[in-house]
Structure formats: C-alpha cells, structure tokens
Fold:
Amino acid sequence: MGQLLKKSKFMRKPVYSVFLSMIVTLFCITAKAQTVSGTVFDDTGSPLSSVTVLNKNSQSNTATGADGTYKISAAIGDSLVFTSIGYKRNGVKVTAATQNLVMQSEVGTLSDVVVVGYGTQRKGDVTVSIDKVNMTDLNKAPVRSFDEALAGRVAGVQVTSSTGQPGAGTDIVIRGNNSITQANSPLYIIDGFPVEGADNNLVNPNDIESIEVLKDASATAIYGSRGANGVIMITTKKGKEGPPVVQFNASYGVQQVTKIMEMMNPYDFVTQQIERDTTTSNTSSPTYIYLTQPGRSLDYYKTASTIDWQKKVLRTAPMQDYTLSLTGGSQNTKYAVSGNILSQDGIIINSNYGRYQGRVALDQNLGKKFRTGINANYAYTRQIGIAPSQSNNSATTNIMYSVWGYRPVEGSEGDILNSLFDEDVPGANDYRVNPVLNLNNLYRAQKIKNIYANAYLEYNIIPGLKFRTTGGITSYNRRSESFNNSNTQYGNIRQVNGVNGGIAFYERNTWINENILSYNKRLGNHNLGLTGVVSMQSSNNDGYGVSATLLPNESLGLNGLDEGTVQAPSATGSIWTMQSYVGRFNYNYKSLYYLTGSFRADGSSRFMQGHRWGYFPALSAAWRFYNEKFVKAMGLLSDGKLRIGYGQNGNNRVGDFDAYSTITLPINIAYPINNVPIRGAASSQIGNPELKWETTEEANIGLDLGFLNNKITVTAEVYRKNTRDLLLQADLPPSTGYGSAFKNIGSVRNEGLELTLNTKNINAKNFHWSTSFNIAFNRNKVIGLNEGQDEMLTSIRWDNIWQNIPAYIARVGQPIGLMYGFISDGVYQLNDFNEDGNGKFTLKDEITTNGNSRANIKPGDIKYMDQNGDKVVNSADYTVIGNGIPKHQGGLNNNFTYKNFDLNIFFQWSYGNDVLNVNRLVFEGNATNKTFLNQFASYNDRWSMDNQQSNNFRTGGYFGGGYSSRYVEDASYLRLKTISFGYNLPNTLLAKAKIKAARVFFAGQNLLTWTKYSGMDPEVNTYTSALTPGFDWSAYPRAKTFTFGVNLTL
Amino acid sequence: MVLASASSCKKFLDTKPSDFLAPETFYATDAQLISALAAVYDPLGWETMYGNNLFSNLTIATDESFWNRSAQTTGTQVYSFDYAHADVSGLWAACYTGIERANILIANINKPEMDETKRQDILGQALFLRGYYYFLLASNFGGAPLKLVPQPSVSDAQYINVPRSSVNDVYTQVLKDLTDAEGKLNSIVSNNNAEAISKTAVQGILARVCLTMAGSPVNDASKYAEALSWAKKVQSSGMHSLNTTYDASLTNSAYSQIFITALRDEYNLKESMWEIGFYGNRISDSYVEGGRVGNTVGLAFSPSVNSPDSIGYCYGFVNITKRQYLRYGNGDLRRDWAIAPFRYNNAAPFAKVNWTTSTIYNRNVGKWRRSYEKLTPKHKNYTPTNFQILRYADVLLMLAEAENEVNGPTSTAYDALNEVRRRAYGVSLTASNATADATLGMNKDAFRTFIQEERSRELCFEGLRKGDLIRWGLFVSRLNEIGNEIANDATNPSFKWGGLAGKNVTERDLLLPIPSTEMSVNKAITAADQNAGW
Structure:
C-alpha cells in the first residue's frame, strides 16, 4: 500500500508523466503489435471458456472459446487482464506470442476466499466450520431457487422439500433440530441483510455469486441471538472490471411425475366393493349399483374401460427460464444488471408458478478513499394452485383423496366424468368430488412483490483501517386470493357456504443499519484483524383479509365479494426491533497458529426489560500444520489444518409479543344476550416476563487435509451442541385457565460427524474428471422437556377423526419426533380362534384383541402386539414405531469434461429415515371406511379364506385406535438428482456470429430414485415441524425434469 | 448513526404492541367490563360444554337413551375411554377458562367509575359463573384445584402446581359464590332475557346444587332443607310459572311449545329461567355462536345432498330406551314430543315415516326438531337454538323432592308434582285430575321413586339424568340393568349393541378422571390423587 502511494505521487509529477508517455509512445511505434494467443485453464486443468481477455494498453478485448483458447492483438509488454465470473481476476504481461494461463477458481480449494459474517477470509485462514457451496455445480441444472439443488451438496445440511408443488418452500435444517416447538430454519444473510424465514424463490439462482453455510457455533456466534440454527450467507454478483459482458441463459424443460400409484381396475374395484357391502336389497348397495343394470355382470368389469384419474389430473408440464445479464465496469465504476423470467407449470393441472425479477448492482469509487455502491433486487412471483396436502378438517377434502379414491368406472347413474359428484357417495361426510372439474375451477393464488435494496459507503481511513456503513430495506407484499365457485369442492351446492372467496394482504417492511469498523495489520510474523460492528434492525408487519360466503354472482369472481355474506375481517400488526454490538479479532502467527474470538451482544424487543440483552461469545483456534517445516519435509500433504472451536449462540424465534399478557376481542369469543351477540374480551395469552433467548453451545473439531497438490482434499468435522432454555410452547396445567405459554424450558443435544472429500481423478489433456463426496451423521436427543413432563405427544390433524390420536412422541433420552403407535402383528389367522363347527370363530383367550371387543374379531382382521400383557390392545400399548430422522445423508458429485463436452452426474441420498405413509391407511384397506372408495392395486392381495397368506387385513378388517408400524416404511433413498450434459460450440463457428462463447446443454433432475418406499416419493413431509418428520398424506407429487438450454456470452 | 443508536437504545427496543390490549390498561369502562363478562359466559357455549357434550357425549348414556351408532365401541358415549379422552380434558379446560376469566373480571371490577347497581349486577354474574363452573367440576370430577385469583405467573411452581381441594371445599366455594351472586343480581323481569343469569335463576341453581350435595357422594342430608328453601324462593317470587299455552298451527301441547319457542329463537321467561345463549348458525354472519342443539341429539335427517331448509340436518346420534318409552302413561303428551314418533326419509320428497309399536329402539330423541328453526339457510351442523339449563318444571320437581325428604310427601310436595303432571296431560294446573295426578297416599319412599321417574318423564335428554342417577346412588346399578335389558331384548334384536354403555359402566364412572392434560404437567396431582378406578 505504501509503495502504491509512493508510485501515485511519482505519477502525479508532470515531468515524469510526459517522460513516461514518451517512452510508451516510442515503445508502441517500435514494438510491433502482433497476435498473441493461448489457452486458459481452470484450476482443475480444464480449458475455460467465456473468459474475458482485455488488453489494458489497447483496450481491445475478446473472450476464450469453448476450448479455452483466445486470440488478441497485443505487443510484448502489454498487460492482459483475464476475468471470468467465479474465478479470480488475473493479469499477465505479454512476454511471448503464446500466453497460457490458469485461472484460480473462487471456490473449491483451501486457498479460496470465503464470506464470513461481516467480512471475508481466505479459506486457509478460517478457524471455524464454514462450507462454501459450489455454485458451478449447483447451477448445472436450471432450478427455480437454489435450495432446490442444495440437498446433498453440503455435509450436515439437511434439505427436504415438503411436497413437489412449484414454489413450495424447502425445509433446511443444519446439524439437526435444536428447537422442539419453534422454527429450526437457518438465518439467511442476503448481501449482509439478515432474514429469518426467507422466501428463496425471490432470488434468481443465476444472480448468486456465492453461498456459504456457517455451521458451527464459533462461526455463527457472530450472528448471536439468531445464529443457533446455522447461517446461510448469500452474496449476489457484483460488477467486474472489464468491457461489457452480456450473458444470456435460456432453458426449456418438461416435468413429469416420478411415479404414479397403481390403482385397482374396474373389476377389482367392484369385487372389493361388493365384498365390503354384501347387502343387495337397497338401492345404494354396490350390488344394486354395479350389477343390476342390463348387461352388467361382474365379468363385464373385466373388460370395462378404466377411468384413470391420475392420468387426467397429472400432466407433462413445461418450465422455462430466461436470464439476461450485463456486467462490466472500469476501475472506478462497476455494474451488474440482470433480469429473469421464469414460468413453471405444475404437474397437477391448473397449478403453476411464475417469477419476474430484476437486479441492479453498482459500485463506485469516490476519489481514493471512498467507495459506495447499491444493490437492489425486485421480484414478483405468482403461485397458482391449491396445496393438496393440508386438510381443513376432513381428510376427504385433500386433492389426492379424490384423485386416487374416485370411482374408476362408469356406474349406474350420472356422468361420472362431467359431474362434480359421484352420486353414489353420500356427500354428508365425504367431500370427494370429481378431481378434474374441481382442480380446473378452484382458484388459489399467492402473489408476492418483494424489493430489497441496500447501499454502502466505505471509507479507508488509514491503510488497514476501514469504516463501512450500510443501510438496507426490504419491502415484502403478499396477496393471497382464493375463490370457490359452484364447480369446486368448497363452493358447490352441498356446501353451506355456497360460492365463496377471500382475499388477504400481508406486508412486511424491514430496515437495517450496520456500521463496521475493521482493521488489519501485519507486524512481522503476526497478523491481526479486528472488526467492530454496531447494528440496528427493525421490522413491522401488517395483515388484512376479508372473505365472504354465499356469493350470488359467481361470474364476478372476487369482485363480487361485497355481494355475499361478509365474514369477519382479519387484521393483524406487529413490530420487532433489534440492536446489536459485535466485536471480533483474528490473529495468526506465520499462517501457522490461528486464534479467532468474537463476541456479540443482542438486544431484542421480543423480550421484556431485564431479559432483553443476550451475550454470545465464541473462540476458535487452528493449527495449519502444513506450514510446519517438518510436515512440508514429509512431502505427504499439500495442505493440512486442525481447527477447534467453541461458541454460544441463540434463538429468538417467538412471536414479537409472546412475552406479554394480552387482552383480545376475537370474533369467536362472544355471548349472545337478547339474541344480540356481545363481544367478549378475554385474556388470550398469559405473558412470561422472564422469557429470554434459547441458548445453544457448540464445540466443533475440524480437520482439513490436502494431498497430491490438493488433488485430494478431505475435511472431517465432529461436533456436539447442547441447546438449553428452549423457547418452548410449554403446556400449562389447564387449571391455570391457559393451555400453554412460552417458557425457557427443556434442552436438546445434537452431535455428529461430517466428512467431505474432493478429488481430481484424471487431469489429462482432453479429459478431466473430478469428484466430490460428502456424508453427515447426526444424532439428536431430547435432554429435558417441560417440568414434570417426560414425553410430549403430537397428533396431526390430517383428518378430524385422527386429530387427537398421537402420531409422534418426543421423549426424554430419545430423538425428537419419533413415530408413535401400535406395533403391527399382521392379521389374525384361523389358528388364533376356536371354531364351533358351525363356522363361528371365537378368539382364543390367550390371543390379544386389537381394540375391538373380543366377540367381534374375525379371522383376517388387523392385529397388533400387546405391549403390557393385558391381552387388550388400547392406547396403553402405543410405543415407538419409527424415526423420521435419517441416520446419515450425503451427496456424490462427478464432473467430466472431454474436449468440448462436459458431463455432471450428481447423486444424493438419505439413509435410515422412516415415513409414516398415511396414504396407505386410506387406500390400502380403507381404514377411514368410506363407501365406493377406490384402493391401491396392492390391496388386491388381502386376507380371505382363499388367501390366508396375505399380510393385508381382510376387507373391513380394520379397527380404529391409532397409527401402527404397518404404515411406517423405510424411506431411505438414493437419487440420481442431476445429470447435465453440455457442449461448448467451437470458436470458429462462433466468431462469425460475433458470439464469444456458447454452450448448449441437456439436464435432468430427479431422474432415478432407488428406494423401498411404496409411496410416490420418499422425500416427503406434508406436516413440517421438528416434532413431526416424515408424514405423507396426499402430497403434491414430485416431478422429474428434462431441460434443454443454452448459455451465451456476447 | 453510531451515537444516535447508542443513546436511543433503550427507547428503540421498547416496542408497543398494536394488535392487542394490555390487561393493565383494560377494564377501564363499564363497556369493557360487560365485554369481559361476555368472555366469562363464552365457554358455556363451547362444544365441550353446552355447545354439545354436556347434553350429548358426556351425559346421554343413561336409562333414558343410548348412542345410536353400532360402530361407537369406544368413547365417552359408551363409557369406554381413559383419562386422555378429549371430551374429558375439554370439559375440564372449559371450566377453568371460565374460572380464570371470572377471576380476572372480579379482580378488576372496581376499576371503572360507573353506576354501582350495574357494577354489582356484573359482579354478581361473574361470581355466579365462577360458582357454576366449580359446580360442574365438583359434580363431574369431584375435588378440583381451587383458584380464586387471576393466574399470577407461568413459572412460579406454587401457582402452576395446585393440588386438588376436597370436593366439600369446592362445594363450599360454589355455595359461597352463588349466594353472593344471589344478593346482587337483577330479576329476570328487569333483564327481560333468559341468557343472562337472574336472581331467581340463581335460586333455582342453588336448589340443584343443594340437592346434589344432599345426595351421593357428598351425602350432606342437611342440604335438603336448603334446597327446599331455595326452590320455595323461586316459587314465591311470582315470576315463574309453567307454560300452558301453545301455537296450534305449530304443535298440540304446551309442553312441546317450550322447546319450539327455543327452536324459534324466542323466550318463555316464565318457564325457561336460564338458557345458554346461541346465536346465528355460522353462515348468517361471521359470529361463531351457533350451537348444536337439535343437530347431534335430535330427529335424524341426513340426506347426501344439502338438506332442505324445511327440515334441517341432524345426525340423530341418540336413540331412546324402551324403558323411557314405557315410562309415560296414556294421555301423557310429553312422550310423543320427547321421543320422535317418526323418522324422515333421506331421499326426496323426504317424507315422514311413522314408527310402529315394534320399533321402539329405532326412535330418536325428538325434543329439538330443527324443522322449527326460523333462521335460513340452515347450517348443516350449527343452530341458533338456546339450550335451556333451568326450567321452572325442574324447580317444582326439586321442591317436591326436597319437601318429601324433609317433611315427607306433604300436600306441598304433591301440589308441586301434580302441577308438572297436569301440564303434561294438557289439563288445568289448579284442578285435580284423576288421570294426570300422582297416586295419592304414597309413602316417602314411594313418593321418592315416583319423583325419580317423573323427573325423567319431564326432563329427559336435558343433560340432567346422569347427575340425578348419581346423586340417588342408582347410577351404576341402573345402567348395568339397562345394558342387559337392551342387549337381551328379543323384541328388538337389531339394537343389541345399544346396551354397550350400560354394560361398560362401573363404579369409576361416577366421576370423570382428572384429564391427562392436567396430570402430565401439574406436579401437585399425582397418580395417587386420581379418582378411584382411573
């Protein structure tokens, strides 16, 4: 820096400048401009296309072709600058006519720069657990949002998409669930802006420069009270010095369902219906309906045509994605502008997703000492279509219930294809409707407008000492619309609400101001870095909604809401503020011994005075033993570092005013006197003034090794984290007058091991092959719950009958969210009974019941294990029947290039997790006991006197009482998540079209899945929460996607 | 900015809630007290209470009726359930929600400046309601935690873990709250409605509480005299009488008119002394104050398409026992109203089909017939019909019962009893009538038995029978008897399963169990404190 300053002083003197320019001129005249050519490689040795090459002397520029070669006019001594997104800027002086060059990738090796909280570090200097996501690999197949492609990329980051609905969020959990009743999603830092519960669809994956995942507490403690669930840092692309580079990425794909369920055909259906209801006399009996019409014998149904409702509802759906970007800049001004249009149809009819997004990033030097910049992103997204998995009340309202359960054949009456109802199904308690008509008429829309903008001003006070102030805002507006016309499940003639609809607005505005002072100093062998931050953030939100029923004019749609019976409007509003002070030091001696310490103090408005401030320290150290002389002398390693860290961080995910006692007047509290309802004012929540942060302590040990010039790199980490003072929605004794209150109670432990391996297997002239592999093991354990409680049961309201039956249990000493119910014992066989000679079977005394009274149990009925030996199965016999948390999971990524071709193959897996497949409860034996409900073909194999080997209970052989291990399935899977095959067009072809580089590719997502799971997809979680992992009921089917696309650089 | 943030730090973090009010600043006006009072009443209308369960699941299986679903082999309806059952925890939680709301209102009663009479009336209602919730707890669960001040903390163990008080202590509190209330409340005449509790209604409820205490399990015989005295206070108030008129275009008896009046959202303040108010049907507007009177227990009508407004949807969950049918004498107009003599055909044109004398067990409870509702369109599940908790007929029968226990079957006892019976036969209330009047000359025991039967004839399905049988010490034996009776009734073989509840009942069913929701978190109630047999 000092030298640079001297140089500039030197330059400023006019006499020298004149002299210098004379020399340059002279040189230009004498040195003959010639064509310089060469090949640019990346750090794996592969030729690198689309690298901008700038001759700083002549300002002429070009870009490398697909084979990495370039040609540019330059003289010996000219400076060439090579730039490419994702690689470090590189400059060389021309010394010969052939100039080859290796560009260092910004990702993938120990020497990279990583973004840490409030600054960056060289990866080699990092003392904590941070993983950088390889954006190049992530973007191999076009995805709507980065989290769709994140699963399996980073060890210890569990990504589950709850359903396949376009626009549906993913559930990301880093190193296991800490919190029992509260959110476990990580904190997102988008360009320095902290966001809890971010909508990742709002960021175009093409705009992302880097994603860092801060995993351990010594890394996340810098984010204090919000860091306990891990931090995902997203940095978007900035302008780069150089001529304007236009990039255009376009892709078109088709999506198809990965699997459909095999249903009963008409013959099997009718057979089973008659078996279910053997009466013949009344007009609603299956025999009457199916067999009394002329020509309708049972044999008729062997050839009757099947109505395949899955085929009618599921479709091949297109997906298009276009991004245009412009980047460039001079030494003083850099810019990046981009726009994206995405349109994705869902594989269920009448569902789709669209995004229109634009971004501008501008950086400007103001003189020598100041720098300023702005980064603004606008996105409009629109999601159309109903979520098929969440029940209002009855399971019969779910979309897949009607798709799978609707009658597969024409009946005796009505036009089953064009009528909304199956007239044979009593409509009072079964809301089954024609799924095609229903879906085509239901209207559900979520329209989101989101702006985030932040600006900074940087001041280099003295060399090494820098002040940066940033200000940012986000404005999030969501409009949710729903409309149920008379041809829908919710608005038809049978519904008391008639045609109905509603509209709701939600708005959230957040601002932040951060002021960062940083100082870096090198004193001989000592390197010191200091950072101090003062930060303030505030967010307020409002929501308003109105709905109306019994709309007289359905053709008016939502505009006719005012004509109906208007329901109580909803109106909510809230605010939180936060103030923080952060300090950090980094020290290293000879890049050999490292010590990092940080401390954060957070004050949050969510807690009452006295409990408002939380303090979060962290300390970590590293020994980069590779730099020890004796290690180098051994020659075995090319890098090596041992890291150890400890930190505390927190979780503040409670409502903004959950610490307060409240008086509210909700519409549902009232008492009518004189037939006039008087609104009631009640204490709806009892405050807890003692409420404070949830604290997580974590210790982490990591080892980074590089072999063979870093052709092989290995990272291993072990950790243990204890979360205490859990913010728990704790049950209170009902005698208090309240059901629950927030308390700091209970604790949870997570411990685990993560391994990451990167190898460059082959690095020949035309052929390159590299592999990365990661695997993570996490073990989760509840250490304590609410006082006096040693277990916590959770039921799932997928159906009103099941709303009070526990499905999951959290028990002290065991993982959170174990599945809970009976152990299945197959079915009752004949030898369980005494037969009286007249065909009457009586259950033997020593055989347990299944909850039904002994006299009513018949051979072929469902059978459970009696756990307590009383020969009666009831709720006392519930036990753990499954675990929704995987034992390990990970990913395997392979990159191949051969000449102009590139190939990426990515596998991802999850092992040892169970799914509670409730679909089978309904469609493999009809446990909900509904009339004329079609079943999975797997139920053709069911127990009967002629088929006593079957493990499926007989028709009508189900008895209520709880979930059972019968429906718990091993949902381990290995998935061929991504295949991408690309071809870089040769330069000779492109030169004519004035295109610098062009790549065409084919990509496939979710192409193959190996699993024993019998449902549509093993990656499913329709009722997402830490307490209820792996629940499958009527999920939106997952799609496999085939995409063709092109990447152009102009 | 750094300076600004540092100096304004404290203020910056002091956010003010904008979506709710703070308890410290509420209760400042009389309107806010009235609003708080409405919230104290509110739990009575929940489905866990008089919105449904207290006249349905929890009380319906007696010698009068049984749950009309053969598939219902577990649940409170058939006395096969455990302490985790939602009906049990729902009742418990509703009582304590009401108690907490009452405690908060009582603690803040003197905050606003307002008319003192009005304040005392509000206080009286709050005291009554707290006492009534404790009465429901004591009679259904026995001893229960007594809480008389607002919940002060969520973390202080002494307020979280409150032990059960003895059942006697709870009843003492009930009597205290109710008598306090009695001295403060307005008369039903000045209220001019049946939903707000009035002075005479409290007197009637006090009679009910005292009779309950006089019987099993408290067995405090001195309470008969108190019951008598409270019932007489109602009688002598002159504000109440039995209904003797009816609208001939709607029905044919004064007895049925009482229920029709409620179904039509009207009052009969002379006879119906306190009603739980229900309003609207959840589609008429955005209130959710519709109840299920007539929808679960009533005349079944369940067509697959939306039910025509002329009839109204009803599940018909409850059928009557043959014993109940046979209780009525010839000419007793109550029978064919209380017990539906016909059913509806569920297919158009939805004709009425009369039952024959061989189809007794098929019959639904007929007291609440949704065809009389005026509010249309009718909701499938919710109705605006008030639930009548206390009728003057009940007061008269309590008077007769208490008089008999204290003084024997005197003419006072006979007069009160016969007044009820004469109305039932549609004859003059004041003139003797050989058909209607009870047999003269019964001894004390015979008179008691007669009253026990009469209460069933008059008050069947109104949520009182279970409590009556328990206090008379007849509950277990009678239900077991009925269970066998139904199961063995050869004349009606298709309802054999109807005896399930009766067969299941044991001594433990005299009380509900303390719910698991309480047991699992309240450390002061251990397994040893649970009610016997649970």
